[in-house]
Design a protein that fits this description.
This protein has helices spanning about 1-5, 10-15, 70-80, 115-130, 145-155, 185-190, 215-220, 235-245, 275-285, 310-325, and strands at about 50-55, 100-105, 135-140, 160-165, 195-205, 220-225, 250-255, 290-300. By secondary structure, the chain is of the alpha/beta class. The longest helix is centred in the middle third of the chain and has 17 residues, at about 115-130.
């Protein structure tokens, strides 16, 4: 830091000093410089004292098709170097409002999925108990189940805004009840969700069952098919979702395969004819004003992401989630 202050114009540099953690500007610090953290934020050992924290969960043991999401957190962090301090589209100024840091990764057990779920649950119990809002870099969608166990222990059953190609409400596969196709079934089983406040958006694809959405609708979920989103703005839909969620705690879970693989090819279970990046922004920005208690972005698998666009989208969507957290001011 001393060397940087000597090298650059000190009065100009002071504009970026803050009592909060602020991503360094590329005007003063070259993007490839420094530790590869989310948004180039400081790395902290714990969530204590933070308002929000980025957390990696590099697990893909629950994947049913193409593996590789264990490398998602690392690549999302790398691509996040392009994300800057302010959201000029919405006016959000998260780094002038909240104390945010990257607290590293949960040390999962890649050889034992139930053990990994226990480790994730224990890690998030500490994060949530500290009063910090976790923003998670996945990892396959299995991870949302133990995260929601910890979140619901503090907040009670939560509402859910779930963007995905799949409902992830299967009961079992190959005899196993925990994998990336079952997290929300397990959450219902354990009473972690307020089922009247669940919205699943972007759902599509072929199915093994003639009525694949019956379970969800029987629970009271709102299921919004991708076909119902084609060629339209989702701003009106999100007005309805905000009314559905009310002022009680809400969790956002965003599977990158909710987007069309033309935009997000780097994922394990792609489905054609999905959402656009603009619609993804409308969904997340439409969550502004909700009582958001946690978020995740899952299923980025970098080896299928030749251009890096999928991880870049993931990094920007996580920034957008940060921008809609409670107490974030606007410019």
């Amino acid at each position: 830091l001393v060397c940087l202050l000597c090298t650059y114009n000190l009065p100009v540099f002071r504009r970026f000093l803050s009592s909060f953690n602020v991503p360094p500007s590329a005007e003063f610090v070259a993007r490839p410089v420094g530790v590869c953290s989310m948004l180039r934020l400081p790395v902290r050992a714990s969530a204590e004292g933070l308002d929000a924290a980025f957390v990696g969960v590099p697990l893909d043991t629950g994947t049913s098709n193409r593996p590789g999401a264990r490398f998602g957190p690392r690549q999302i962090r790398a691509e996040s170097a392009m994300v800057r301090r302010y959201n000029t589209s919405t006016g959000a100024a998260p780094f002038d409002s909240l104390l945010v840091a990257d607290i590293g990764d949960v040390n999962v057990n890649l050889y034992n999925l139930p053990a990994s779920c226990r480790l994730i649950h224990e890690a998030y119990q500490k994060i949530v108990a500290s009063g910090c809002v976790p923003l998670t870099l996945g990892g396959d969608h299995t991870i949302t189940y133990p995260i929601l166990q910890a979140v619901a222990e503090k907040h009670g059953p939560v509402g859910l805004v779930h963007v995905d190609a799949h409902t992830d409400t299967g009961d079992r596969a190959l005899g196993e009840k925990i994998y990336h196709g079952t997290p929300f079934r397990r959450c219902v089983d354990e009473g972690l969700l307020d089922c009247s406040r669940v919205a699943q958006i972007g759902i599509r694809g072929s199915s093994c069952a003639p009525d694949p959405y019956k379970y969800c609708r029987d629970q009271g979920f709102r299921v919004v098919l991708a076909e119902d989103c084609w060629l339209k703005s989702l701003v009106p839909l999100m007005a309805e979702v905000r009314q559905q969620m009310g002022d009680k705690p809400v969790y956002i879970s965003f599977d990158i395969d909710g987007l069309d693989p033309a935009y997000a090819p780097g994922t394990g279970t792609p489905e054609v004819a999905g959402l656009t990046p603009a619609q993804a922004l409308e969904i997340i920005r439409g969550c502004k004003g909700l009582n958001i208690v946690g978020c995740d972005l899952v299923e980025v698998a970098p080896m299928y992401d030749v251009s890096g666009n999928t991880a870049l989208l993931g990094a920007n969507l996580l920034f957008e989630m940060l921008c809609v957290l409670p107490r974030v001011k606007t410019m």
